[in-house]
Design goal:
The complex is a heterodimer of chains A (526) and B (464). Chain A is an alpha+beta fold and 526 residues long. Chain A has two domains: 11-273, PmbA/TldD superfamily (PmbA/TldD fold, 2-Layer Sandwich), CATH 3.30.2290; 276-512, no CATH class. In chain A, 21% of the residues lie in helices and 36% in strands. In chain A, strands 1, 2, 3, 4, 5, 6 and 7 form a seven-stranded mixed sheet that branches. Chain A has a six-stranded mixed sheet with strand order 12-11-10-15-24-21, with helices on one face. The longest helix of chain A is centred in the middle third of the chain and has 16 residues, at 169-184. Chain B is an alpha+beta fold and 464 residues long. Chain B is 23% helix and 38% strand. Chain B has eleven helices and 20 strands. Chain B has helices at residues 5-21, 80-93, 129-132, 135-150, 219-232, 250-263, 266-270, 331-336, 370-375, 389-392, 427-433, and strands at residues 28-45, 48-66, 69-75, 156-175, 180-198, 201-211, 240-248, 291-294, 315-320, 323-324, 345-346, 355-356, 361-363, 379-386, 399-410, 413-426, 434-437, 442-444, 447-449, 452-462. In chain B, strand 2 and strand 3 form a beta hairpin. The N and C termini of chain B lie far apart (60 Å). The chains are: A alpha+beta (526), B alpha+beta (464). Strand 3 (110-116) of chain A pairs parallel with strand 2 of chain B.
Chain lengths: 526, 464
C-alpha cells in the first residue's frame, strides 16, 4: 500500500515458497507458446506472436476510445511459469498458466483500468465499453472512431536456448539431484539447503489508441540457491546467491552457472560463521563491482521514477542540478541482450532505450512512462512496465548501473585506511522517496584495515540519504561489472530488474552494526 | 457477488479427474482450491482520481498426491478442458518428484472438514456491503481520506500515495478424502503517505489499515493519522549513541511479532532454519508476553472456518507468559512432527500451494496505559518509524540494526523528534527485555499489538 518497497532477506525464498509457480513441462499452452515465437526465432514483432487477431483488437481499442478518452491501450498476455525446487533434499515442480487482457483508458491524466481473463471477443468488447464508460467525461458525446493497427518492429531479440520444452522433466529432475548433492556435500556444517529454478514465458500483444500494435515474447530463466550453516558454537547463518536472464539455460555457464550460484551461497554462509560484529558509525565503505548496483537502484533510482518525482520525491526539480559527485554517471538500460530488465517494447508499446539519468554528477533525465512523463513535460523513456495483465503500467527501472571510472579497482581498498568492504549488499532494503532516506541490509562484507581487507563482518546495515550518498562517492573504479540478477523489484507490482557498477568508494555513510562504535574515522586518502 | 455452484463443481471435477487419470497404477489423491474475487482499487492524488481499477478474477490450484509424491499446478482458465489438461499433466509428471512420506491430502482424521450445502460456518468474515457500495461512493471515500490529511495542517505539502482498496472473495475447496465446502470473506482498507514541509525540512508520514466490515472503515481517520505522523517528525535530528529504555508503538511492534511468528513455523523449525528449535516449554520471552494466533477471531481480517487445505482453524497460544508452547503446523509438518495441524496452511490464492503461515496474530494486552509506560521512563526512545525492518533482522542469528525514527522520551514525556539513528540488538535478548505491555491492543489488518517497552536497547547515531 505504501510506496516504500520492502524486500526481506529471504525474499527469493519467500517468493518460491509462497508463490511457487511453474512447470508447464507438458502443458499444451507452453508448447504452443514456445513453438512459434520470437523467443525461438528472432525479433519480438514476429507474426507468430499474434495472440488475438488485429481486427478484434482494433475494434476493442475503438470501443475503449469511444467515449472521449485521451488515450488508451489493450494489453493481451498469456504466460506459463515452470519451476523446480529442491528444499530439504525433496525435489518438486509446479506449473502455472495465466492469460488475460487489460484495458486502460486515460482521461485528463486519470487512469481507468479493468481486465478480463477471457479472449472471447464479446467479453473483450464488454470490458472495453465498461472502461470507456468509466473514463467518459460527462459532456463527451463523440462518436466512436475506427482505429486500425500497424505492427511495430524492433531490432532487439531475446532468444531462449534451449527452450524449456526441449528438456524432458526427468532430465531437469536429474540435474536438480546433482545440484542437491553438490550443495549438501560442500561442507559438514551445512544444515539445510534450497535450490530453485523458474522458467517463465510471457507473450504480449499491446494495441494502442494511436494505431500501433507491439508484439513480443520474453523467456526468463531464474536460478537461486540458499544455504544454512551451523557453527560449533551453535550459531546459525544463512546466505543466498542468484542469477536471472532473458535467456535459456545455455546462458548460465562460467560465472553464471548454477554450480557457481550454489558454491557462492555456501561460501558466503560459511564466511559468516567466522565473522565479527560489524562496527557502527559514519565511515568509508568500498562497494565491490557488480550486484551492489542494487544499492543505487534502491537509494536513488526509485526517487527518479516519474510518478514519484511528480508527487515530490527528493529528486523533484533536480534536472540540470548536481545530484551526485563529479565522475558519477548513472544509466538505466533496457536494451542489453539477455539482461532481466530488457525488452523490445515496454508494457505500453514504447520502444526500449538506454537512458542516462545522471551524467558526470548532473541529473539529466527521469524514468518516464507516457502519463507521468507527460505530466513532467518529458517523453517516455520506455520505462512503463507492468507485472501482468492485472495491472496498469507505472514507471519502473530496467537494468540500472553506474558507469565505469578511471581508477584501477585494486587501488581503491589500498587507498582506504579504515572502513568496510562490501562484497555483496544482498540483504534487501527499503527507501522513503520523500526524504530520500534508504537502508540496505549487508549480506557479505569485511573490515578494511590499513588498506587491506581483513576479517569478515556480519550484521551490518547501511543507511542515509540517496543524494548525499551519491555526492559522497569519491572514487569510481575502472571495472564495471553488470550483474544478470534474478532480483525482483516490488513497487506495488513485481518486475525483473538488473544491476551493475564498478568498484566504488563512498567516503562517508552511516553503518549500523552490533560491534564497536567507530568515531572520528578519516575518510582515507584519495 | 454470489456463491457459484459451477466453481464447486469444477473443483470436484478436477479431483475426480485426477483420481481417474491414475486408474491402473498407484492410487491418486487430489485437492482443488478455487478462488473467485472482485475488488476495486482507487488511487487519488491532489484531490483528484489518479487511477481506478476494477478486478474480477477466478482460478484454480490443484495438488496431486501419488505414491508419496506431490505436484502442484494452477490456472485462471476454468474451462473443463483447460483444468482437465492441467490435471492430466500433473498426474503424469508427479512420478518424477521426490517421494516424501509426510506428504498428505487431509481427510477427517487430519482435521479436514466437509461442509453441507450451505458451505462452512460463517465466522463474521464477510460483509455484503463491501461489494454493494457503488464505485462512485468508494471514489468519494478515497478523496475524503486524502483531503482529511491535506487539511490536517498547513505543513502538509502533498500526498505521495493515497490508495483505497477493497475485495470480496469466495473460496471453494474439494479433495478426494472427503473435504468439500466453501466460504466467503471481504475486506476494505486504505493507506496514505504524506510529505510534510517546514522551511527547508521535509518529512514523510504514512498510515494504513484494513477491516472486514464497511461500517468499521473510517477513511478520514486514516488520512489524519498519516498526516499527524508526517508533521510530528518535522525537525527530527540524530541523537548521540547511547543505551536506553525503548517504547515501541503498536504498528512497529506488529512487524516484530510477525517476524517471530515466521520463525515459529514448524516447517522452519523442522528444517533446522529456526533458532526456536528445541525451545518448547522454555522461557523465550519476558513474563507477561503472550502471543496468540487466532484463525477464528470474530471480525479478524484473516478469519476463516478452514485453512488452505480444508482443516478447521483454531486459536493457538504460541507463547504464554514468556514460555514457548507450540509451533504453527499444517498437515505436512504435523505428520512429520507426529502431532495435529493447528490449521495454519496459508495460501496466497489459487496460484500458490501455500505453506505454514499465521492467521490473526496478536500480542495479548497487559494492564498499563501507554501514557503510564511513558511516565515511568526518565530518558528513553519511542520507536515510531522503521526502514527495512525485515531486511535489518538476521533471521539466522536474531541480530538487528534497524534505521529508525521516533521521539525522545524525557522525564516521562515524548519530546523532540529523532531521525538518522539505528536501533541495534538481538531479537531474542529483546524478547526477554520486554518489561511493560500496554492495555491498548491495536489491530492493523491481521496483526495486533499493544504498546510495549523494553528495558534497554542500543541507539546508534551521529548526533552530538
Amino acid at each position: 500500500m505504501s510506496p516504500k518497497k520492502p524486500i526481506t532477506r529471504r525474499s527469493f525464498l519467500g517468493q518460491s515458497a509462497a508463490g511457487l509457480t511453474s512447470v508447464a513441462f507438458s502443458s499444451a499452452l507452453m508448447e504452443m507458446l514456445l513453438s512459434s515465437t520470437g523467443c525461438k526465432s528472432g525479433p519480438g514483432a514476429a507474426a507468430a506472436d499474434i495472440i488475438i487477431a488485429d481486427d478484434i483488437l482494433a475494434k476493442a481499442v475503438s470501443l475503449l476510445m469511444g467515449k472521449g478518452a485521451d488515450f488508451g491501450d489493450v494489453y493481451v498476455e498469456r504466460a506459463a511459469f515452470d519451476s523446480v525446487m529442491s528444499d530439504d533434499r525433496k525435489i518438486n515442480t509446479t506449473t502455472t498458466i495465466e492469460k488475460g487482457v487489460g484495458f486502460r483508458a486515460v482521461k485528463g491524466g486519470r487512469t481507468f483500468y479493468a481486465y478480463t481473463d477471457s479472449f472471447e471477443p464479446a467479453r473483450l468488447y464488454e470490458t472495453a465499453r465498461y472502461v470507456a464508460d468509466a473514463a467518459a467525461a460527462p459532456t463527451a458525446a463523440s462518436a466512436p472512431g475506427v482505429i486500425t493497427l500497424t505492427p511495430l518492429a524492433s531490432p532487439l531479440a531475446f532468444p531462449m536456448k534451449p527452450l524449456p520444452s526441449e528438456i524432458a522433466v526427468s532430465l531437469k529432475i536429474d540435474m536438480f539431484k546433482a545440484l542437491t548433492d553438490r550443495a549438501w556435500s560442500a561442507d559438514p556444517r551445512i544444515v539445510q539447503a534450497i535450490q530453485f529454478m523458474r522458467e517463465i514465458i510471457r507473450q504480449v500483444n499491446i494495441a494502442t489508441s494511436d494505431g500501433k500494435i507491439a508484439r513480443q515474447t520474453l523467456g526468463l530463466t531464474e536460478i537461486m540457491a540458499q544455504t544454512f550453516v551451523k557453527g560449533a558454537d551453535g550459531q546459525l547463518q544463512a546466505a543466498f546467491d542468484q542469477r536471472g536472464a532473458y535467456a535459456g539455460r545455455d546462458f548460465f555457464t562460467g560465472e553464471n552457472s548454477f554450480e557457481k550460484v550454489i558454491d557462492g551461497s555456501v561460501a558466503k554462509a560459511l564466511r559468516l560463521l567466522e565473522a565479527v560484529d560489524s562496527p557502527r558509525g559514519v565511515f568509508p565503505v568500498v562497494l565491490a563491482a557488480g550486484e551492489n548496483g542494487v544499492l543505487f537502484h534502491e537509494s536513488c533510482g526509485h526517487g527518479m521514477e516519474a510518478d514519484l518525482v511528480f508527487k515530490g520525491s527528493n529528486y523533484k526539480d533536480q534536472i540540470g542540478k548536481q545530484t551526485a559527485a563529479k565522475g558519477v554517471t548513472l544509466v538505466d538500460d533496457g536494451t542489453m541482450e539477455s539482461f532481466p530488465g530488457s525488452y523490445s517494447f515496454d508494457d505500453e508499446g514504447t520502444p526500449s532505450e538506454r537512458t542516462v539519468l545522471v551524467e558526470d554528477g548532473i541529473q539529466r533525465n527521469y524514468l518516464c512512462d507516457k502519463i507521468w512523463g507527460e505530466k513532467l513535460g518529458l517523453k517516455s523513456t520506455g520505462n512503463g512496465r507492468r507485472q501482468s495483465f492485472r495491472y496498469p503500467p507505472i514507471p519502473r527501472m530496467r537494468n540500472t548501473y553506474i558507469e565505469k571510472g578511471a581508477v584501477p579497482a585494486a587501488d581503491i581498498v589500498a587507498a582506504t585506511k579504515r572502513g568496510i568492504y562490501i562484497a555483496d549488499v544482498g540483504g534487501g532494503g527499503q527507501v522513503d522517496v520523500i526524504t530520500g532516506n534508504f537502508m540496505m541490509g549487508v549480506g557479505s562484507a569485511s573490515l578494511i584495515e590499513n588498506g587491506k581487507i581483513t576479517r569478515p563482518v556480519k550484521g551490518a546495515t547501511i543507511s542515509g540519504m540517496g543524494i548525499e550518498a551519491m555526492k559522497s562517492i569519491d572514487i569510481v573504479g575502472d571495472d564495471l561489472k553488470l550483474f544478470p540478477s534474478a532480483g525482483r523489484c516490488g513497487k506495488m507490482q513485481s518486475a525483473p530488474v538488473g544491476f551493475g557498477m564498478p568498484t566504488i568508494r563512498v567516503r562517508n555513510i552511516l553503518v549500523g552494526g552490533k560491534g564497536e562504535a567507530w568515531t572520528d574515522i578519516e575518510g582515507g586518502s584519495k | 457477488m454470489n456463491f457459484k455452484k459451477e466453481y464447486l463443481d469444477i473443483a470436484q471435477l478436477a479431483v475426480e479427474r485426477a483420481r481417474k487419470a491414475g486408474a491402473g497404477g498407484a492410487a491418486v489423491a487430489a485437492e482443488a482450491y478455487v478462488t473467485d474475487t472482485e475488488s476495486i482499487q482507487v488511487n487519488v492524488s491532489a484531490r483528484a482520481v489518479e487511477q481506478m481499477s476494477a478486478v474480477k478474477e477466478a482460478g484454480i490450484g490443484v495438488r496431486v498426491l501419488r505414491d508419496g509424491r506431490l505436484a502442484f499446478g494452477s490456472t485462471n482458465d476454468l474451462s473443463k478442458k483447460a483444468v482437465g489438461d492441467m490435471v492430466d499433466g500433473l498426474v503424469k509428471k508427479v512420478v518424477y518428484h521426490t517421494d516424501d512420506e509426510f506428504n498428505v491430502i487431509p481427510g477427517a482424521a487430519e482435521g479436514g472438514l466437509a461442509a453441507d450445502r450451505l458451505g462452512y460456518e460463517d465466522l463474521g468474515s464477510y460483509d455484503e456491503r463491501i461489494a454493494a457500495v457503488p464505485v462512485q461512493d468508494k471514489i468519494q471515500t478515497a478523496l475524503r481520506m486524502e483531503a482529511a490529511g491535506l487539511e490536517y495542517s498547513p505543513k502538509i505539502a502533498g500526498s505521495m500515495m493515497a490508495v483505497y482498496q477493497d475485495g470480496t472473495s469466495y473460496t471453494y475447496i474439494a479433495n478426494t478424502n472427503g473435504v468439500s465446502g466453501w466460504f466467503r470473506q471481504s475486506g476494505v482498507g486504505a493507506g496514505v503517505e504524506y510529505t510534510a514541509a517546514d522551511g527547508d525540512t521535509r518529512e514523510s508520514g504514512s498510515y494504513q489499515n484494513g477491516y472486514v466490515k464497511w461500517a468499521d472503515f473510517n477513511a478520514e481517520e486514516i488520512g489524519r493519522k498519516a498526516a499527524e505522523n508526517a508533521v510530528s517528525l518535522l525537525g527530527a535530528k540524530p541523537v548521540p549513541s547511547a543505551e536506553m529504555p525503548m517504547v515501541i508503538a503498536p504498528d512497529i511492534a506488529i512487524q516484530l511479532w510477525s517476524f517471530i511468528a515466521g520463525m515459529l513455523s514448524a516447517d522452519e523449525v523442522q528444517k533446522g532454519r529456526s533458532l526456536f528449535a528445541e525451545k518448547i516449554g522454555t522461557e523465550i520471552a519476558a513474563k507477561g508476553f503472550t502471543l496468540v494466533d487466532d484463525g477464528r477471531l470474530k471480525g479478524g481480517t484473516s478469519t476463516a472456518p478452514v485453512d488452505g487445505e480444508g482443516v478447521a482453524t483454531q486459536t493457538t497460544p504460541l507463547i504464554v507468559d514468556g514460555v514457548l508452547k507450540t509451533y504453527l503446523y499444517d498437515c505436512y509438518c504435523a505428520k512429520k512432527g507426529q502431532t495435529k495441524s493447528t490449521g495454519n496452511r496459508s495460501r496466497g490464492g489459487y496460484g500458490s500451494a501455500g505453506g505454514v503461515g499465521t492467521t490473526n496474530l496478536y500480542l495479548k494486552p497487559g494492564d498499563s496505559a501507554p501514557e503510564a509506560i511513558m511516565a515511568g521512563i526518565d530518558r528513553g526512545f519511542c520507536l515510531t518509524v522503521v526502514l527495512g525492518l525485515f531486511a535489518a533482522i538476521d533471521s539466522a542469528s536474531g541480530d538487528f540494526s534497524i534505521p529508525s525514527a521516533g521521539f525522545m522520551i524525557e522525564k516521562g514525556k515524548k519530546t523532540v523528534p529523532v531521525r538518522g539513528v539505528t536501533v541495534g540488538g538481538n531479537l531474542f535478548e529483546m524478547l526477554k527485555a520486554v518489561d511493560k505491555v500496554g492495555s491498548d491492543l491495536t489491530w492493523f489488518q491481521s496483526l495486533g499489538s499493544p504498546t510495549v517497552a523494553v528495558s534497554h536497547i542500543k541507539i546508534g547515531g551521529s548526533g552530538k
